Amino acid sequence: MNRTPIVIVTCFGMLIAAPALTAVVVPETNILLDKMPLFDGNHSLTVYQDAVATDYTSVWLEYDGAAIEIVNWNIDEESDWYLVEAGDEFGEKNIASDLFTPIFTTDSPRGPISVGTDFYLGVSTGIGYYGYPIPTRDVFGWVHLKWDGTKLVNDENAMAYGCEGIVVGTNTAIPPIPNVPEPCSLVMLVPLALALLLY
Fold first, then answer.
1. Measured between alpha carbons, how far is 67 from 64 in angstroms, rounded to an integer?
2. How far apart are CA 155 and CA 42, in angstroms?
């Protein structure tokens, strides 16, 4: 008789899905634009691959007031860059659906790409590799760039960590799909729970 409450708690615990992980969004600080880069190009973009800004990767680009082209990059996990618009849901699902114009993907510059003088770029990156040469892509961000007549200006930006993506122009992360048990798994647990309760 004393075992019944313990069994109820144990069985009930098996039926509860694990809570979804909380995404971390860092606005304004984790994408850096430099006008005087050390390598090729006339600008560089650096993104932090972790929320606490200890690991980063960079690309170097040429921008002429109308078009952009990536001309050099770090050889590490790297970062993939796309032309995006405010309000876009920028994440792995829509990237895989070819919804965005690629500017640079792993070791493959595309360009020059016409972007105008006021535009958004989306970036995906990560830390570590699933298997060389395909890097992990679990960090997503956006940057709003404007041409002031002499240089690009980093008007605003945000990076999202631990999520499926980010809504461009906002600090809203696209949450991961929760890990909910399949219905058939729950059905199989019911007879087990009843058997333990009647024991």
1. 6
2. 18
**All structural domains of the chain with their residue ranges:** 1-17+180-199, 20-179
Q: Are 172 and 196 in contact (CB under 8 A)?
A: no
Residue 52: Cβ within 10 Å count? 10
Q: What is the pLDDT of residues 91-115, one digit of tens each?
A: 999 999 999 999 999 888 998 999 9
The values of phi and psi at residue 18, to 5°, are -65, 140
Q: Which two tokens stand for residue 149?
A: 């007549």
Residues 6+ apart with CB under 8 A from 106: 78, 80, 133, 134, 135
CA distance 12 to 199: 16
The span from the CA of 58 to the CA of 197, in Å, is: 59
- Using 50 as the pLDDT threshold, list the residues of the chain that sit under it: 1, 3-20, 184-186
Are 110 and 104 within 8 A, CB to CB? Answer: yes
φ, ψ for residue 39, nearest 5 deg: -110, -150
d(CA 46, CA 73): 10
DSSP string, 55-122: -EEEEEEEE-SSEEEEEEE-SSS--EEEEE-TT-EEEHHHHHTT-SEEEEETTEE---EE--SEEEEE
Per-residue confidence (pLDDT) for residue 7, from 0 to 100: 39
pLDDT at 16: 42
133 cis-preceded (ω within 30 degrees of 0): yes
